[in-house]
Design a protein that fits this description.
heterodimer; A: 325 residues; alpha+beta; Alpha-Beta Plaits; 10 helices; elongated; B: 222 residues; alpha/beta; 6-stranded mixed sheet; 10 strands; 34% helix; globular; cell cycle (chain A); membrane (chain A)
């Protein structure tokens, strides 16, 4: 290759590069322009756009609220798991010194995390405090309560706990082991059902959002049919034609997501007081769960994504139909 | 530039729009395509624009068999030819400037570079002062000139026009044809479909005459 040729090849390569980078800038510019243009089109018809977004928001609120409730139930579940303990009641003829030894024996068991001995006297004091029956109980000559040991298992799963209960019962000096886990199990089953229900509803309502956006974008495509035909005639790619509609789909999704977020927040505020009062009347402290930053981000991201996807499907279907005449 | 090799086009298996068309157009030539309506002028142009594929034979443009272009390549092929339509095909919700800039926007040309080229094209058709107007505010002849500016804004090597003077009076038609001759003079290959025989006769270019889908005459420039 002669020096002349090399120089020309280099120049060619350079001009190719500048052309590519300027193309890229032009492409970026078109993205920005379409992003703004589709937003402007939405604002030009505020009522229609708002109605579409509201429909999306309503479709999003139900699964989001369920998910929140379930999330808080899961927290509750974890707390309950931690508090899962067994109570070993000692035989009534076990005296205090023996009780201490039994406690030590239980503590030594490999599946036991911690124990707490409640002597007969302590048990009586607790009982009196809880019932407020000081007078009636003080009339008793004898303390009828046995000493007991509260055992915290290492593994709080229902199977492990019931195995442990059997083993503890065999320890000398232990008369009875009580565990009441059936309700815990039931609660867990309920939570599982709720989870599946939320998932099913989420999928259904997600499909609803796709349909809402798809239908809106289909109308937009129809109203801009001539424009699509013209740009196709002068060399627009499918991506170019699709772009403004994808942006408007994403805007619809984002708007719907924001509205859903607002509805959840306002609804949460509105329900907070009655829920707290209700919980208090049961002697519990429970406040309605709220969307944190992460939850809000997930909500907005998925609503935008659903909008984009709905637009993609609608435009794809209609691009195939619209052929320049 | 353009070569038709024994091209036939049938629609729906029965109606024969074009039969055994065979001709070549050299680079830089200006050619008129004429014949009654329904003679196949539009079908022929649609084949060159790759809106249709030939049922038989081959259509070559700049050496490429465009019937064999993959669908994803077609947009890039169309960017290389400028097309002027009888009904202008302008977008009525955009300014003249935006209409002319459309092909550059599609190709991703930077706004500054695009502005320069749009102004040059509008200047060429004498409508630079109307760039902010909407198409509806322009007369038929002016609208057609906007359509021409849009067709030439990215300096295509091939310019096609389908009845560009269809709805215009003789003086405006002559002006439009003058514009095509100007573009041809700077090296653009131009093909104009028209049934305005009087005008064509005056302009002294090569004429391809179609009748019922057949090429019945190929008259070299006088």
């Amino acid at each position: 290759m002669s020096r002349q040729e090399v120089r020309e090849t280099r120049r060619g390569a350079r001009s190719q590069r500048t052309r590519t980078s300027s193309r890229l800038r032009g492409w970026g510019h078109h993205h920005r322009a379409m992003c703004l243009d589709s937003a402007r089109r939405l604002i030009r018809y505020p009522v229609g756009s708002l109605l579409t977004m509201l429909a999306i928001a309503i479709a999003l609120v139900l699964p989001a609220a369920l998910w929140l409730t379930l999330d808080s139930a899961r927290l509750l579940d974890a707390e309950l798991n931690e508090s899962a303990t067994l109570t070993a009641y000692l035989a009534s003829d076990v005296d205090e010194a023996q009780a201490v030894r039994v406690n030590e024996a239980l503590q030594a068991h490999s599946a036991v995390a911690a124990t707490r001995l409640i002597t007969a006297a302590e048990g009586m004091a607790e009982f009196q405090q809880a019932l407020g029956l000081t007078d009636a109980l003080s009339r008793l000559d004898d303390n009828p309560l046995p000493a007991s040991v509260v055992v915290t298992p290492r593994d709080a799963s229902p199977e492990a706990v019931s195995v442990l209960a059997g083993e503890l019962e065999a320890v000398t000096g232990v008369a009875d082991v009580r565990l009441d886990l059936a309700w815990l199990e039931r609660l867990r089953r309920l939570a599982e059902l709720g989870q599946r229900l939320t998932l099913a509803l989420g999928v259904l309502f997600g499909l609803g959002v796709l349909l809402i956006v798809g239908n809106t974008v289909r109308l937009a495509v129809e109203s801009r049919r001539q424009e699509i035909e013209v740009v196709t005639l002068i060399g627009a790619t499918h991506a170019f034609v699709r772009r403004p509609f994808l942006y408007s789909g994403a805007w619809y999704g984002l708007g719907g997501g924001l509205l859903a977020w607002g509805l959840l927040t306002v609804g949460g505020e509105w329900l907070a007081t009655p829920v707290a009062t209700l919980a208090e009347s049961y002697g519990a402290r429970y406040s309605l769960p709220r969307l944190d930053a992460m939850g809000s981000a997930v909500l907005l991201f998925s609503s935008t994504l659903l909008g984009l996807l709905g637009a993609w499907i609608a435009v794809g279907r209609h691009l195939a139909e619209i052929r320049p005449r | 530039m353009i070569a038709f090799e024994h091209v036939g086009k049938r629609y729906g298996g029965r109606f024969e729009a074009l039969a055994n068309i065979d001709f070549r157009v050299r680079r830089g030539e200006m050619v008129f395509l004429t014949g009654h309506s329904g003679a196949g002028k539009s079908s022929l142009l649609r084949l060159i624009m790759r809106l249709e594929r030939p049922s038989r034979g081959r259509v070559l443009v700049a050496g490429h068999d465009i019937g064999r272009l993959h669908a994803s390549q077609v947009p890039f092929y169309r960017r290389q030819i400028g097309v002027v339509f009888q009904d202008h095909q302008l977008l009525f919700d955009r300014t003249i400037y935006a209409n002319v800039a459309l092909p550059l926007e599609i190709q991703g040309v930077e706004p500054r570079e695009a502005a320069r080229r749009v102004r040059a094209a509008l200047d060429k058709v004498g409508l630079l002062h109307r760039e902010k107007a909407l198409p509806i505010e322009l007369s038929g002849g002016e609208q057609q000139r906007v359509g021409i500016a849009r067709a030439v804004v990215n300096k295509p090597a091939l310019l096609l026009a389908d009845e560009p003077t269809g709805n215009l009076d003789p003086q405006l038609s002559a002006d439009i044809m003058q514009l095509f001759e100007d573009f041809n003079r700077i090296g653009t290959t131009v093909m104009v479909a028209s049934h305005d025989l009087a005008l064509i006769a005056r302009l002294r270019h090569r004429v391809l005459r179609l009748r019922e889908g057949r090429l019945v005459a190929d008259e070299e420039a006088a």
